[in-house]
């Protein structure tokens, strides 16, 4: 999703890692621009399409499934590229194509129920595990437990500790953020007086001479950090304040509330994994900001004189709602994947994640199904400035049990999976977004994900940041490849995207720290997505077997193992 919570942005004002952030506003539509021709770290999508058309290359329409919070299917810049189920007759209340879903014209909503009901807020998986295990173990003397029961009790103790810490952190955060916001407001007032106006850029701030005025020095540093995160005035700060306050309120009322259970709105049993037919065709749901923004990045209608240009130009977006305000359920994620695959998706974008996955086997089976049906899975790495090689992040491409992949071969990971970190539009050591997760073995590449301007509900447009934006930017590039080179398999497209990155020299700031590290320490490929390079490699690859992944090219032997799960999931 976008930065995990708005409060994080406010907290960044007091972080040394951003006090020296450069610039204030990203170039317009930067995620489609090219590092060579436009001198900004975009995907190069515009240039790639220009080159393809200059060569007379033809494309075929492909389907990209957006597994997310829902999409405004009537948005002015999306309505013409929404997938339309060819076997279904709209509004007749029948399952015309026999796929089990009634009137699924543009996709499906696994969080919907009858009479317009929807799951909006949800608990965290941590909370659900705490509730499940508390019913079994609360008040139990561990001395009386043996074997598997004793091991699960240890898991319960870890869950209990993690839950209590999360609850305490939310309660403390709600109180703490109020004080931080007040300091930021005071800083804006101080700087407004010094500059003589209410809105200003980082460049204007840099020209202010604070002299020995310690108060103004601190105010300038705080405001500079705020502007680097897109908060350019007190009016914008007020909106972030609402978001930050709402975040903590929702944490306590819904996400971390053990007594909250919204699943009755759907009418299914979330633990009954045999039932795949539930939900509704309410594509938008109660809050479609996130999914609508993601869809626009991939494929908002290009060159129509309206809004923005998406990256790919011959795509149909399938909406599959499975992400609430809280943690998605494994059952819904798996069934969303099955739905997308069965209805013709070539690429599935998944801009969501969580720290626990009690039914991972079920999700694994769905991902294996996608791989077997030549579907590329693209997933956001997460927004916690954590190392995905050591910290748990689900779903991931690591099978719980190796999967048979031939007579003498087993896959330990999903072979058609790409994990994407977030790239900033800035240069130098600020190239990686400060919030992005990373991983030398488990994040494949970085893609634009900071200050991305895209479609939002009600035919509007807005900015958002996160690996949630980086994944669809990469998905847009993959869509170009699958559209213009349909003979390439999902595995080939994955390898092409990894092998065609724009390699990055020099050091970058490691997210969550002030440390400087080599770009190669933060992802498999050591580079950023490049549509122009990918198209060039795809052209050379036609009819050939793609080179092995980049780690083999580097003479490093076998591909790196997926991260060892630090999660306490049994």
Model description:
The structure is a single chain. By secondary structure, the protein is an alpha/beta fold. It folds into two domains: 33-82 and 278-553, Peptidase S8/S53 domain (Rossmann fold); 125-255, no CATH class. The protein is built from 15 helices and 15 strands. The strands form five sheets. It has a seven-stranded parallel sheet, with helices on both faces. β4, α11 and β5 (376-380) form a beta-alpha-beta unit. The two termini are 26 Å apart. Mean pLDDT is 89; it is low at 1-6, 8-23 and 546-570.
Map the helices and strands.
Blueprint: H1 6-12, H2 16-19, H3 45-54, E1 62-68, E2 107-109, H4 125-137, H5 147-195, H6 202-206, H7 214-228, H8 234-255, H9 289-299, E3 315-321, H10 330-342, E4 347-350, H11 360-372, E5 376-380, E6 398-404, E7 410-413, E8 417-423, E9 445-448, E10 452-456, E11 460-464, H12 467-484, H13 490-499, E12 502-503, E13 507-509, E14 516-518, E15 527-528, H14 531-541, H15 550-553
Parallel strand pairs: 1-3, 1-4, 2-3, 4-5, 5-8, 8-9
Antiparallel strand pairs: 6-7, 10-11, 12-15, 13-14
